[in-house]
Design brief:
Strand content: 5-15%
Radius of gyration: 24 Å
Largest sheet: 5 strands, parallel
Number of strands: 5
Length: 214
């Protein structure tokens, strides 16, 4: 039974290869969508689900390696498994350095390809979860006032309320109020939870300011 929550894109100009790969993936319970060129793949509307791309290196219009570069520029984060009948070390190194999951030479072993696809789909699933979490955290961060952001940055940097008040030129009571609002808006269950959120958002301590704003 195939998984409707994931898809494998196959880009190869050889119809026999496309069909054989699609059949292999189907027998492994994976859904495949095939394309005869890089341009066809780029122009297609792709479903917003976990995915990976099986990509031939030698293509008639845009090469597989060039497509990998264009996808990176367009922020299309789909894990890639390269297939080639002309494999060589420089191409393999370039592909892997650019983030490819695997670089397989035709004829490939079926289980090797299926294993690489499952690894790629898992990588994409984890990436999607992480990206979704970051987007949600950024939305929460966007609800904070400028002063609350300052308090957040100083609190997660390890400063006590009294120290934060000294840094920002206000009272400890005011900082307690701001801190409470930060915890609620960020939906943090504890200080440790807030620190983890700040790490994911890469929040750094604010620069000292002489302006007293409450």
């Amino acid at each position: 039974m195939s998984d409707p929550n994931s898809i494998v894109f196959v880009v190869d100009d050889d119809p026999l290869v496309r069909d054989s790969v699609a059949d292999l993936l189907g027998s492994a319970g994976l859904v495949a969508q095939t394309f005869g060129s890089a341009t066809e793949f780029i122009q297609a509307k792709r479903p917003n689900i976990s995915a990976c791309l099986i990509l031939d290196v030698e293509l008639p219009d845009l090469s597989g390696l060039d497509l990998q570069t264009e996808m990176a520029k367009a922020d299309i984060a789909v894990p890639i498994i390269f297939l080639t009948g002309h494999g060589d070390i420089p191409k393999s190194v370039r592909a892997m350095k650019a983030g490819a999951v695997e670089f397989l030479t035709k004829p490939f072993r079926e289980q090797e390809l299926v294993g690489a696809v499952k690894q790629a789909l898992l990588r994409d699933l984890e990436f999607r979860k992480h990206r979704s979490e970051i987007l949600e955290l950024r939305e929460r961060l966007g609800t904070l006032t400028p002063r609350e952001r300052q308090v957040l940055a100083l609190v997660v940097d390890g400063l006590l309320n009294k120290q934060v008040a000294g840094e920002l030129g206000t009272t400890e009571l005011t900082i307690k109020v701001h801190r409470g609002r930060v915890m609620r808006k960020m939906k943090a269950a504890s200080l440790a939870d807030l620190v983890r959120m700040a790490e994911k958002l890469k929040i750094s301590p604010p620069q000292p300011s002489s302006t007293k704003v409450e």
